[in-house]
Amino acid sequence: MPALQNDILIRALLKKPVPRTPLWIMRQAGRYLPEYRATRKRAGGFLTLCKTPELACEVTLQPVERFDLDAAILFSDILTIPDAMGLGLSFTEGEGPRFSKPVTCMKDVQRIAATQPLEGLDYVYDAVRLVRQELGGRVPLIGFSGSPWTLATYMVEGQTSREFRKIKGMLYAHPELLEHLLEILSQAVVEYLLAQVRAGAQAVMVFDTWGGVLSREAYLNYSLKPMRHVVTELLKTGTQPVVPITLFTKGVGQELADLAATGCHAVGLDWTMEMDQARALVGSRVALQGNLDPAVLYGPDEVIRREVRKVLEKFGTGSGHVFNLGHGIQQYVDPEKVVVLVEAVKEFSPAYH
Amino acid sequence: MPALQNDILIRALLKKPVPRTPLWIMRQAGRYLPEYRATRKRAGGFLTLCKTPELACEVTLQPVERFDLDAAILFSDILTIPDAMGLGLSFTEGEGPRFSKPVTCMKDVQRIAATQPLEGLDYVYDAVRLVRQELGGRVPLIGFSGSPWTLATYMVEGQTSREFRKIKGMLYAHPELLEHLLEILSQAVVEYLLAQVRAGAQAVMVFDTWGGVLSREAYLNYSLKPMRHVVTELLKTGTQPVVPITLFTKGVGQELADLAATGCHAVGLDWTMEMDQARALVGSRVALQGNLDPAVLYGPDEVIRREVRKVLEKFGTGSGHVFNLGHGIQQYVDPEKVVVLVEAVKEFSPAYH
Q1: Pairing of strands B72-73, B141-146
Q2: Among the partner residues A163, A253, A300, nearest to B273 by beta-carbon distance
Q3: Which band of pLDDT confidence, cut at 50, 70 and 90, is reported for residue A343?
Q4: Beta strand B203-208 pairing with B141-146
Q5: By the 8 A CB rule, do A211 and A223 touch?
Q6: Measured at the alpha carbon of residue A193, what is the angle toward residues A226 and A197, in degrees to the nearest 5?
Q7: N or C terminus: fewer CB in 10 A for chain B?
Q8: What ipTM was assigned to the predicted interfaces of this complex?
């Protein structure tokens, strides 16, 4: 593999000095890009796009070709693991994911425990290898997984939820069932991320989209604890060079400090907490990734520039900041606005280093 | 009007001594009750139920008849004001509210400014009067309104949203338009709540369901500032006896301290922040309402009792706690579980007073 030409993302995640703040965008390979929509149309469906390494590679590279970003992130779905566990994943336009065989009882959990999901995910590792080859060392490639808790929410609810009635019902009525499910998922996430790293991922991120719906105590037990297991196991492998691990819980509050204490290298922040407040909570333990409100990209150019500046200013000086949105870029954003964002980060951020 | 026999809610909201922690339940008149479903069926539709004072009164009283609660809360919808502004409100089963004429430009805002919405809301004040009469002083009646920001989200999005693309687009691209809309709504909310108080509401609550989707700065400008205006104007009226004002922003973080500084008497908490942490943030300024995870009611009786105890213990000793769920009770909860909750609060809470 060719040497990395632009390594400022990796350096910032490890809190090493960088000349400017690195930048990538959550969901940067997504529906707001006309070239993405074209490839997806050609693929026929979202799952085919995820499961065809050549197509997944193509869309992974699209934002890197179009914008001057400091990382590629593998195009994939967060539900690949439950899909490989045989839960019958499908996507309906505008409705999101759906599992035909959700997890409802111990028998379901035991059935899942007997599967070998990692073996069914070669398409992911193939995509990672292809992307690394095509990137030719321009920027690092980030691999990712859903967090065990977040995977469990979809597996138990069977679809996107607002109230999380079924999984929270399980949490309060049958905690042993949920704990067993989370143990299986934690181990699967470890192996999944390690396989991505072996295939070439140079950093990894765990997306805990639904940790924020839990009470503090439930968060610590059912969302954070499994993520800590993932971090601990990944760190044990002692890969060289170090593969930085980023954890991201959307809607996290004071628990940010607990997240930072897991041993991970960086934590992602949504836009509802300010960077200075987050920095006060995590101290110097980890790098911070974020956290522009994705909706700022609906504003005029000068507002985007103003808000970028505010995020940089709130983080302040020193390394350990990876610029990003606080959540995925939305599908109705004009790609030209991303150019404004990228240029603003490049223009303003050197002053903080 | 007969004198109040059970005034512990009012006393706790004003941080006066009480023998035990008062309790009511957000959305206590709701679909989890078979008698509510029967009345709603008889009404034909949700809006008819809201707009027929006799029926609204009937469902308001149902939970008070069934459980030993310390307050009634007016059964109504949070979108009565925008409905009276002529936005064409309708409800589709399972899809939530929809406005046929959402607010998209300054012309729409000016059209709204020219309406007299308060005149169209007599059915609300009539319901308040009826409920007071029927309650016969057993427990106080709480009136309520959506917060200006929360009303604006529905008015601009036209329906329930996940990404709040339109209103946040307005916030970043046309803030003057949003500010104008919020000024109109702030004044309407003041007049609406005052009319409820004149009709007999003995406490009022402002539901800011969507303040938590904003960045801190945007929250302070677009959600908190209008609520502060509402509080200030209500306090100016100097009603005797005092009508306690509770503000509730779902998903609030550090901004809880700002919320408490508005001059309100109490703040509501969802279940994601713990009571001791909240108390540390607000000091002795306000009472706190909450904050059991509504999903706890899916657990077995001993888990409900254990979790009730935890909330009481986290608040600790002294007055200023109103027990409640952290959000509305869900429709699939067994009403018998509410009996367990009520009994647990009555059994455990005297030890903290």
Answers
A1: parallel
A2: A253
A3: very high
A4: parallel
A5: yes
A6: 145
A7: N
A8: 0.94
